[in-house]
Write a structure and sequence with these properties.
The chain has about 180 residues and is of the alpha/beta class. Helix content is about 40%, strand content about 20%. Strand 5 and strand 6 form a beta hairpin. The chain binds guanosine-5'-monophosphate. Guanosine-5'-monophosphate (5GP) binds next to strand 5, strand 6 and helix 4.
Length: about 180
Amino acid sequence: MAGRGKLTLITGPSGVGKGTLVNQLLERHSSIWLSVSATTRSPRQGEQDGINYFFQSRDRFEALVAEGGFLEWAEFAGNRYGTPRLPVEQRMAEGRPVLLEIELEGARQVRSSFPEGFQIFLAPPSFEELERRIRGRGTDPEEAIQRRLLRARVELKAQGEFDAVVINDDLESALQQVETLMELG
Ligand code: 5GP
């Protein structure tokens, strides 16, 4: 019988490249299970319900919060995001490595409920580079970009709370550092 799977969490400011890094990790290590979050944000072009997120109305999200259905949840740039509790617990019980990709407030909540989990902060090489990446995505309105930049400054200040900080300058090098931290062969 496999032991309890390890929980790894990756946080980092919007635009730092968490999504790309996580996708590469999943491609390289099929044992990893990535939690799919629920959100009240509207889907971006190409995003699919149940794959990128579970897209939910505010009312449904509230109902899930009230039922205790989330391991953690937080408000980010005007929308709510939460990690469904049950699938995480099931995968851990099966002994699979579980990965969460969430923002700072959620990471803090997970730190208190899963102190044995390992928390990685993915940082940009500089704030200017982060702004360039956020604007380069070209999918969000200016107001949303401003909110994300403001939030990024807050998140960057919190990197000292994490078990490890990885700078995403070169993707391959960042990936290798994360693989080492997750003890993946
Ligand atoms: P985006 O709208 O760009 O997909 O995500 C915005 C932020 O929400 C990102 O920093 C992402 O990591 C975070 N996020 C995604 N899912 C969750 C979740 O389940 N809980 C929390 N707390 N943050 C999440």
